[in-house]
Amino acid sequence: MSTTTSQPALEIRGLRVAVEDREILKGVDLIVGRGEVHALMGPNGSGKSTLAYAVAGHPKYAVLEGSVAIDGRDALAMTVDARARAGMFLAMQYPTEIPGVSVSNFLRSSVNAVRGRQVPVREFLKELKAAMKSLEMNPAFSERNVNEGFSGGEKKRHEILQLTMLRPKIAILDETDSGLDVDALRTVSEGVERLRGPDLGILLITHYTRILRYIRPDYTHVMFDGKIVERGGPELADVLEAKGYEHLRSKVVSGDA
Question: What pTM did the predictor assign?
Fold first, then answer.
């Protein structure tokens, strides 16, 4: 089930985060080991995306307390680009359009920055072609402008393409299943599954269980009102599908969580 090495890919301790003076995260502890897939579930507004953006270094999210480490290094002391070079990858729920920048040029610049060297064009194009083929992407896609006019499925395929090319240590996938039809969900999930291995930790954020039928997590965590209130294995997702999230409210109110 787990192939954790001695050093976790991502370690979050006591994280409290505020947005515009409103505290959203109220003390989150979460460790993702290398080789592990963790599902973070919870209803809308529970703080899942706040966790993703705060860990990635979005300036809107103020860290009040706690620590975040990537591969044993203090992420909170790093700039956003330094976190990416250290091995963090964030697939956003709503990817941004970048007019005038082709997918190919965007990926080549990103790969060069993360790897710390100028990857030869022939080597890069060979990698890109293989990665796109694995995701069932038309080669012409690489010449389109980043996310401009992309369908929901194309945006998510592009994010998994980035993940494939950048080879991070920790991948945070925020609502990767959002807006996908069944075929696109299968293709994207298969792309993630191919990347599973001993060097990559994955934090899969979702409030639906359908993607977990394709990507079986090693561990499942449930967030409610800014805290992780329940933890378990893959079977916990099955419980949530049967009961929903409402049954957790009484646990939080009573203090049993």
Answer: 0.89
d(CA 205, CA 150) in angstroms, rounded, equals 22
Q: Which CATH class is domain 10-95+169-254?
A: alpha beta
Q: Residue 74: beta bridge partners?
A: 69
* Alpha carbons 204 and 196: distance in angstroms, whole number: 12
Residue pLDDT, tens place only, 9-58: 999 999 999 999 999 999 999 999 999 999 999 988 899 999 999 999 99
Cα dihedral: 173, 179, 182, 186 (round 10) = -20
Whether 155 contacts 91, CB under 8 Å: no
The DSSP secondary structure of 74-136, one letter per residue, reads: EGGGS-HHHHHHHTEEEE-SSPPPEEEEEHHHHHHHHHHHHHTS---HHHHHHHHHHHHHHTT
| Residues 89/163, Cβ–Cβ less than 8 Å | yes
Which single residue is written with the structure tokens 């965590």?
Answer: 221
**In sequence order, what are the residues at sequence separation of 6 or more whose Cβ sits closer than 8 angstroms to the Cβ of residue 135?**
157, 160, 161, 164, 187, 188, 191
Alpha-helix runs per DSSP H in the chain? 48-56, 80-86, 103-115, 121-134, 152-166, 182-195, 235-243, 246-254
The DSSP code for 54 is: H
The domain locations on the chain are 10-95+169-254
pLDDT in tens, 178-218: 778 888 888 889 889 989 889 999 999 988 788 888 999 99
Surface-to-core class of residue 247, CB atoms within 10 Å of its CB (0-12 exposed, 13-18 middle, 19+ buried): exposed
